[in-house]
Amino acid sequence: MAEQEQETPARPVREPSLVDAVIPLITLAGLIAASLALFGLDALDGPVQVALIICVLVAALIGMRNGHTWADVERAARSAFTSITSAVLILLAVGALIGVWNLSGTIPTLVYYGIQALSPTWYYAATALICGVVAMTIGSSWTTAGTIGVGLLGVATMLGVSPAITAGAVISGAYLGDKLSPLSETTVLTAQLAGVDVHQHIKRQAWTSIPAFTIAFVVLLVISLAKAPDVRNPVGEEVELNSLDGIYRITPLNLLPLVLLAFLSLRKVPATLALMASTLFAGFLGAFLQPGVVRDFVGGDDYHAVVGSIKGIWSAMANGFSINSGIGEIDQLLSRGGMDSMLLTLWLIIGAVTFGAILEEFGMISRLVDPLIRSARSTGRLFLTVFACCFGLNVVAGDQYIALVLPTKVFRLEFQRRGLHPANLSRLAADSGTVTSALVPWNSCGAFMSAVLGVPTLSYLPFAIFNYASPTLSVLYGVTGFRIEKS
Fold first, then answer.
1. Where does the Na+/H+ antiporter NhaC-like C-terminal domain lie (predicted)?
2. What does the alpha-carbon distance between residue 360 and residue 368 come to, in Å, rounded to a whole number?
């Protein structure tokens, strides 16, 4: 009779204590505070990323002390990497698009026409409205900010209005459109998680999104009117307009890549494919419409039109576009982009979502959330708890999808038990998880917006009015009972 193999007993796994769950958060808060104190706004150029990696190791050590293995840590990290694959590809594609759109004249043309069409007396409010319409059409806050938003920031630079306020207006409009568009993946995901038809979800979402955007629009309009007399400089504007027209061939044809991007988005082509198609098309047009710019960018005495154009497009996609026109404002506006400009942001996102994945895998998030659910006896306190969890996960986990998925899954049964319609949860989760993600510097959304718009998150945060008016209204509805539906 064969001897039976003796199996090594598995090490027992303990549930994390409250102290176990709190230690990584305290470590994160301490290290981020220290990095901001030592490096200021430059903390996002590496110090915050290092802080997140250290927090990953702290959380991993706590999990291993409770019986988990290093293989469990690696499995959680792999799940984190898988969850951001789409974000990584979109980020790289946006970096390439910005570089080539500057080379081909798309962004300079947007700036040129924008300066003529938009006035500082209503610039911030108009920016929010334009981005809201575009985002609602294509269903993506990221694509809106990385394309139209970049152009509007360029116009702001030329007009002399505040880039920080403009960035806040771009983000306010972009997230309004993202939440109310049936093409938005976060809108569809939220509805699916809560068990609500997507069109019903959007209908309920409008009850907080439209009033919140109205508040943002009015405030931005007041700011525009208050600051307008001090910002317009007709002489400087005329010089800059002539300079752009002298460097590039300004023509509506330069805007065809933007039209292609909108068309592909409406046809529900994946964002990365749509962005890259628009990028390559812009490069092709630029080779014919902007041969002088391409020649100056590539350089070299043995320049060949075909080879030089390919080299210029390739280089702009990889390392961004640069120009030396002798006019500082134009050089600063257009010398940017490239996939490599997104690497710091990717580093930040990888650290943040890995930290969040380990906290979830080892039960530390549920250890913190469960007592909150038990203590939320009224509907108002329940709504406030959901908001706190969503926003807290945006801070701790650094990813809007974690902040959206986990609370919806955790609270769905509680809403059902209390007889609350699931549309209440889908609206609240979107208001609290999706919208507030852009307000956290190390969150994937906050890092993305800061990278593509060129404005630090903490600088635009006070002016992203929609992004905190929306969750405020959502929680207020829960407290007062307004628009709260029973199942």
1. 207-482
2. 11
Among 158, 148, 157, 105, residue whose Cα is nearest residue 127? 148
Per DSSP, which regions of 23-97 are E strands?
A: none
The size of the chain, in residues, is: 487
Quick one: three-class SS letters along 169-226?
Answer: HHHHHHHHHHHHCCCCHHHHHHHHHHCCCHHHHHHHHHHHHHHHHHHHHHHHHHHHHH
Closest CA to 344 of 39, 83, 91, 27: 91
Residue type, 55: C
228 class by beta-carbon count within 10 Å (0-12 exposed, 13-18 middle, 19+ buried): middle
pLDDT at 329: 67
Q: What token pair was written down for 39? A: 């490096």
Report the alpha-carbon distance of residue 342 to residue 94 in Å, rounded: 9
- Tokens at residue 217, please? 């629009």
d(CA 233, CA 302): 42
Task: Return the structure tokens found at 416.
Answer: 């059902």
Q: What pLDDT is recorded for position 206? A: 93
Taking the C-alpha atoms of residue 203 and residue 198, their distance in angstroms, rounded to an integer, is: 9
Cβ partners under 8 Å of residue 211, min gap 6? 469, 473
Rounded CA-CA distance 379/454 in Å is 41
Q: Do 90 and 447 contact (CB within 8 A), yes or no?
A: no
Between CA 453 and CA 461 the distance in angstroms is 13
Residues 6+ away with beta carbon under 8 Å from 446? 437, 438, 439, 440, 457
Per-residue tokens: 465: 């009015």
Provide the sign of the torsion angle of the four alpha carbons 404, 405, 406, 407, taken in this order.
positive
Distance separating alpha carbons of residues 192 and 381, to the nearest angstrom: 24
Residues 339 and 190: their CA atoms lie apart, in Å, by 30
Question: Could you give the C-alpha distances from 349 to 50, 188, 443, in angstroms and in order?
Answer: 12, 23, 7
pTM of this structure: 0.73
**Dihedrals φ, ψ of 420, to 5°?**
-95, 135
Q: d(Cα 88, Cα 208) in Å, to the nearest integer?
A: 31
Nearest to 166 by CA among 120, 135, 234, 99: 120
Distance CA 252, CA 263 (A): 17
The pLDDT, as a whole number, for residue 304 is: 83
Listed as ranges, residues in the chain with pLDDT below 50 are 1-8, 229, 231-236
Q: Residue 442: count other Cβ atoms within 10 Å of its Cβ.
A: 25
* Domain chopping of the chain, boundaries: 95-333+360-437+459-487
Residue 110 and residue 261: Cα distance in Å, rounded?
A: 15
**What is the C-alpha separation between 397 and 355, in angstroms, rounded?**
6
The per-residue pLDDT for 2 is 47
